Amino acid sequence: IVKRWVKIPQISYASTAPELSDNNRYDFFSRVVPPDSYQAQAMVDIVKALGWNYVSTLASEGNYGESGVDAFIQISREAGLCIAQSMKIPREPKPGEFDKIIKRLMETPNARGVIIFAHEDDIKQVLEAATKANLTGHFKFVGSDSWGAKSSPILDQEEVAEGAVTILPKRASIDGFDQYFTTRSLENNRRNIWFAEFWEDDFRCKLTRPGIKIDPEKKKCTGEERISRDSHYEQEGKVQFVIDAVYAMAHALHNMHQDLCPGATGVCDKMDPVEGRLLLSYIRAVNFNGSAGTAVLFNENGDAPGRYDIFQYQMTNTTSPGYRVIGQWTNNLRLNVEEMQWTGGSRQIPDSVCSFPCRSGERKKMVKGVPCCWHCELCDGYQFQADEFNCEMCPFDMRPTLNRTACRPTPIIKLEWHSPWAMIPLFLAILGILATLSIIITFIRFNDTPIVRAAGRELSYVLLTGIFLIYLITFLMIAEPGTVVCAFRRLLLGLGMCITYSAMLTKTNRIYRIFEQGKKSVTPPKFISPTSQLMITFILISVQVVGVFIWFGVVPPHTIVDYEELRPPNPELARGILKCDMSDLSLICCLSYSIVLMVTCTVYAVKSRGVPETFNEAKPIGFTMYTTCIVWLAFVPIFFGTAQSTEKMFIQTTTLTVSMSLSASVSLGMLYIPKVYVIIFHPEQNVQKRKRSFKAVVQAATMSSRLSQKSINDKQNGETKIEPDRTQ
């Protein structure tokens, strides 16, 4: 008996639980409504069509709510959606339970979309809690068929429900049923034992029953009330499915009777009793047009096709607030997005995403375990956005574009003639060249005068040539770098100073040797003639020239673009600097020989400080060297102290050229300006004086030595005489 009982086929008009599709467990179950798995798929398609990828789910505790949400979560994962919160509403919620639910939903405020599989009363209380929390318009609900197009869940909560998208199996209103049901009364419908209870609830009154007293405060039913006239009437949405379920069973029995009992009236022996599995096969084979004009049929699991209407509750820009059909779902979604309205009548679809798209130049840093969530990180420094998830460094000669989506060439700069950094050195160099040329012309014109001859014409012209080259190097340092310019930079940078200080060193060395020799004997030292002096000078100069040409052979002069020197943290300020291939070290090496000559010359100037003023140029040369040393000592910290500056090239070029011009100007001013002044403005002093023999030089050296010794002795004697006074 039990075995026969459990094999009774069933046709449901309302059960939508997905697990009922399991043919192994519920093989005798069929239904004319689609399962919630179809509904869940339709809701996933709606979420995707709205551009959402981060939603929360809310389910009433129980088979309907939990299985519906489970189906949605499973399908959403396959579709790439993320679930922010998944909560259950208890069967018997405690006070404040719905407030806690809303509060927890707000823990992920970006998940504005809420998928809700819940009973009518739970839906209503969720909306009330959202209103209470002043979150009207924040959450956008996507409701299942339990919400559908019903007015009861949103009664008095229309504002917070505005924009809610709901789903309902496709249905039609059955006109014949309305005509039948609205004519039912207590007199003509006594066969329905629950009709009296419905009557009391619908008309909000109480029927009199024998032996039961009626509360005097409650309205008494008269029996004359009429459905739809005296109460609000709306056809139940499942009427169509009830009719289709009954007709499906009828069609199955009819077809079975025709096959098993052809021509017989009533049930024949083959159908008494009805074999359940055989009847099930006839049920699964039915295919007819139902009450709504759509086909009624079942698949192998006993499920009806998925056909849904998509509704949205709209209040604004409409004659009467209510649910409006905005689409359909039959295995695929057809949604009229342009007909949708949101809070306040807005046509803009609200966002429900975990993370908004990153801006140009930002990469996504994914949140572990949540594929819809990421942090946007700017590609900083010299990085550009290689793809959605990665930043890469631009090549060394490029910098990122403003939106950091690609790289662009770094601008190339050089020191311009009109730059403030160039104007001061150029001004000094032009003045120096004019002064040098004026002195050379003056010396040539008065070449045979005593002052010019006494100054040592040959070495003076060599020294003035060196000074001229020192001024000239300023123009080469500012000129646009090229192979020729770079070659002349290497050659002349140290050559001008080398010529100048070689000539000065030869002069000071000659004076020093003459007076030192004069202290010892009356025989003049060797190599003090003009020709010898020139030879010594050119030998000293040749060291510099040979060194430069060896440098040419090892590393031919060429230009480079230095992208590292001016590469600050902000790539917009990055520049490539066109320059000659001369590092700071090579530049110092180029000047090092001249510095050695300068220091040696200074040493001889110090040693010759005791020479009488009437003898040649020892003291002017000494003052020249002291001042030059001070200039170059100031140059070193400025030059190397700006190595990290963003304007390093400009500062160093200016510092170098100004220092060289100042050292040349010191030499010019100390050694030749006084002579030119006398030649031009006091020609009476430019006369031949008594020619000094080497013997006179020896006597002067001897007297100078004696005076120096006497000064030392007097100092010591003075100290001796003072001592007794101290003891007293």
Automatic annotation (TrEMBL):
It comes from the Eukaryota. InterPro entries: ANF_lig-bd_rcpt, GPCR_3, GPCR_3_9-Cys_dom, GPCR_3_9-Cys_sf, GPCR_3_C, GPCR_3_CS, GPCR_3_mGluR4, GPCR_3_mtglu_rcpt. CDD domains: 7tmC_mGluR_group3. Keywords: Cell membrane, G-protein coupled receptor, Glycoprotein, Membrane, Receptor, Transducer, Transmembrane, Transmembrane helix. The chain crosses the membrane at residues 421-447, 459-479, 533-554, 585-606, 618-640. Residues 421-695 form the G-protein coupled receptors family 3 profile domain. Residues 712-728 have a biased composition (Basic and acidic residues). It is found in: Cell membrane. Its main location: membrane. Residues 703-728 are annotated as: Disordered. It is a multi-pass membrane protein. Belongs to the G-protein coupled receptor 3 family. This is G-protein coupled receptors family 3 profile domain-containing protein.
